[in-house]
Each structure stands twice: as structure tokens, then as C-alpha cells.
Amino acid sequence: MENTAYTNQIPEKWATRFFIFWGGQAVSLVGSSLVQFALVWWMTKTTGSATVLATASLIAILPRVLLAPFAGTWVDRWNRKLVLMVADGLIALATIVLMILFATRQESLWAVYIILLVRAAGGAFHSPAESASISLMVPKEQLARIAGLNQTLNGALNIISPPLGALLIGWLPMQGVLAIDVGTAIIAISILSFIKIPQPPRQLAQENGTADKTSYMQDLREGWTYMIAWPGLMGVVVIAMVINFMVVPAAALIPLVVTQEYHGSVMQLGMVDSFFGIGIIIGGLVLSAWGGFKKRILTSMLGIIGIGIGIMIFGLLPSNLFYIALSGIFLLGFMQVMANGPLDAILQAAVDPDMQGRVFSLLGAGASAMQPLSLLVAGPVSDWLGVRTWYMIGGLACIIMAFAALFIPVIMNIEENRSKGSADITQIEIT
Predict the structure, then answer these.
(1) Is residue 283 a contact partner of residue 342, using CB atoms and an 8 Å limit?
(2) Contact, 186 vs 27, CB < 8 A?
(3) 197 vs 200: CA distance, rounded Å
């Protein structure tokens, strides 16, 4: 039996509205990707320090850890369209401040850290609001394809942004590159202003007076109870916490591996991002055509194993084999799609629409919770033992954890043991 409140919100001609919305968000992501590349390269060339890069990554993660458990509840209570617009506006405003600092030659490492923190805080609200909106705009039988499309978009950005960012860094001052992000944010906000974003059924019922209103604390507790009652999901969170502790430092230290171990420049760093993007694009196309195994969590676990292999290939080859090491980056991108795409489809199809803001936020917070500690440890350790250390650790962690999960029933049966924390959840079918 389907949740009719959920189904009736999606018209037959859903694609036009969704892809206008999706296009606006895609344009905004282009600007954000350019800023990310430019700031990472600026910090790499200015300091050459693993600790600085690890600290920057830590700052970008902290809002997800500290705000996400609470932001998701607000996302489920507030108008999701307004959340998206305010978050985009906050990120653009922070970028404008950084533009002024670079234009007046008052930029500093601490200023970049603060702006990264503000941008990440906006993302802590934007990401769950966007993910939770998709399931109310797209029929559930199309969610896997949309997940593949989003992965393909991310791959395309990884291909386009590095060479474009490298060219812009050579042609424009830093404030000019930052201005592009502000422009793309304005485009995204403008599109959102006239696109209707559906609201979850219970929120609409409360607004219409046909359901009792709940307090923020009641909703917050309900989100925690909902997740705890889903044993398979809690198992996935634990795996994500362990893997992220080991893998995140490897990703944060890529610029130093390129410059110090492979003796590369900005163009080689751009090639790494591009090969990663090509892997994601091809992986997204393969997943869209294939759909993965019938038991979608199996596809995810095999993807994690592939991620581990890719990390080890890139991080451990001799310095004269950079172009072969790029195959590891390609595999990392390809397998990331296989790991994330099926899991996204499972959650968007199975989680009650009224709970999705909280579930996506709590899942993101759990996955990120161990990252700050790992980055605090990784920076000094890498400066001491070498940046390759974490590539062996991270790769082995992925392989071992994913193989272990294949023999844990509550994880492998996540699609069957979904939460009974809400009466509506039993009415939503998994495709």
C-alpha cells in the first residue's frame, strides 16, 4: 500500500518542474566548486602545510557535526524552499565578504577559515533540505535514476571545475573567481523564487489545522527514535563513522601528495580532480543503465571495497608513476557512485517524507562525527611520517569494513528491516 499523501503531491508531468529546480542548483554548484578549488590551491601554495589543509577540512566538517542533528528538525518544520533560499543567500554573503578582503589585500588564513565555516553552516541546512525535497518532486520509481544523475553531475563538476579553476586563477584575481560563485548563487535563488517546492504531508496537515502541532523538541526526539528503531541504518552509520575517520585525511591531503610525492603542479592537481570526475560520470551512467544488484545495499558494499582499492593505488605508487596512479583516482570516483547512489535511493524511497530532513541530517552528522578527530590527528602525523601514511590506513579500512558488513544481517537487510518509528513508513514501498 502506498502513502497517498506522498504520491498525490507528485503530478504526472513532474519532470519540467524538477529539472528547472535541479538546473538552478547545478549552476550554483559550479560556482561553489570553483571557489573550493581556488581556496584549496591558495592555501596549498601559501603554506604548503598538511596541518593547514587538514584544519580547513575540519572547519568545513564541524557544522555538519554540530548543526546537522538540529538543522534536520528545522528542515522538517520549516518551508523547505525558504530554507534553500536562505542557505544559498548566506553562502553568497560570506563569499562577498571574502571578495572584499582579497580586493583590499587584507586576506589571511584566518579569514579564509571563518568564511569556510560560514559556508559550511549554510550547507548544513541546504543539503538535507535539497535531499528531502527530491523525494517529494520525483516519483519513487525514478529516484535511483535521479541519484545516478546527481552523481553524474558531481563527476562533471570534478572534470570542469579544476581546469576552469586553474585557468581562472591565472586570468583573474582571487576576488574575480569568488565573484563567479556569487553570480551562480543569485541564479539559483532566482529560480527557487518561482519554483514550487512541495512540503511533507504532516507539515501541510499541521498548517491546515487537520493535525496537532508538535514542538521542536518532540520532533527532535522523534527523529532520533526513528533512526534507532532502524537497525540496518544504524549499522550503516557505524560503518560510515569508522571509514570516514580513516579516509577523510587521505582526501584532504591530495594536494600535498600531488605536489610533494608526485612533484606535480596545479595542472596535475586538476588532472586528479578530472579523473575523479570522469570516474563518477561513467559510474553514474553505468548505475543508471544497470540499476545495481537487486539487493541495493550489496552494490553499496562492493562500492566501498572499490573505494579502498582506488585509495591505495593512488597513494602508494612510486613518484614516477603519477599517470598510472590516476587509475586509482578514476576507480575511486567510479566506485563512489556504486557506494552512494543505491544508498540514496534506499533512503529516499523508504524514509517517511515527514522524517527525511532529520534522517538525512542525522546520517550526515553520524558519517562526519569522527572526521574532526581524524583531521586533528592526520595533519601532524602526516607532517611527521609523510602524507602517504593515511592512504594505506584508509584503503585497508574501507576493504575490511565492507567485507565485514557483507556478513552482518541487519545491514544487508536494511531494505527489509526499515524503521517502524512512524506508522506511515509501512505504507511506502521500496522499488
Answers:
(1) no
(2) no
(3) 10
Contact assessment for residue 301 and residue 405, using Cβ atoms and an 8 Å cutoff: yes
CA–CA distance, 352 with 49 (Å, rounded to integer): 45
* Gyration radius of the chain over CA positions: 21
Give the three cell numbers for residue 398. 574501507
Cell readout for 340 is: 552512494
Three-class SS state of 10: coil
Placement of cell 569568488 in the chain = 178
- Measure the CA–CA gap between 86 and 288, rounded to whole angstroms: 32
pLDDT in tens, 369-415: 777 777 777 778 777 777 788 888 889 889 999 999 999 998 888 87
Dihedral sign, CA of 215, 221, 227, 230?
negative
| Cα–Cα distance measured from residue 25 to residue 91, given in angstroms and rounded to the nearest whole number | 13
d(CA 272, CA 253): 12
Place of cell 533512503: 347
Helix orientation angle between 80-103 and 15-47, rounded to the nearest 10 degrees? 30
CA gap 210, 204 in Å, rounded: 9
Helix (H/G/I), strand (E/B), else coil: 334: helix
Tell me how far apart the alpha carbons of residues 123 and 187 are, in angstroms, rounded to a whole number: 17
- Fill in the amino acid letter for 149: L
CA distance 415 to 208: 33
Contact residues for 366 (Cβ-Cβ < 8 A; gap 6+): 237, 240, 241
Q: If you ran DSSP here, which 8-state letter would residue 428 be given?
A: S
For residue range 86-117, list pLDDT tens digits in order: 999 998 998 999 999 988 888 888 888 888 88
- 103 three-state secondary structure: helix
Helices (H), 172-265: 174-194, 201-207, 216-228, 231-252, 254-256
- CB-CB contact of 22 with 154 (8 Å): no
CATH of 15-420, one of 1.25.40.10, 1.10.260.40, 1.10.10.10, 1.20.1250.20: 1.20.1250.20
Pairwise CA distance, residues 212 & 252, whole Å:
46
Residue whose entry in the numeric block shows the C-alpha cell 521542536:
216
DSSP-assigned states of every residue in 159-176: HHHHHHHHHHHHHS-HHH
If we measure between CA atoms, which residue out of 297, 291, 356, 287 comes closest to residue 135?
356
Among the residue ranges 40-54, 71-85, 198-212, 363-377, the one predicted with the least confidence is 198-212
- Identify the CA nearest to 224 among candidates 391, 72, 9: 72
Return the C-alpha cell found at 354: 515527514
Using CA atoms of 164, 167, 170, 171 in order, give the dihedral in degrees to the nearest 10.
-90
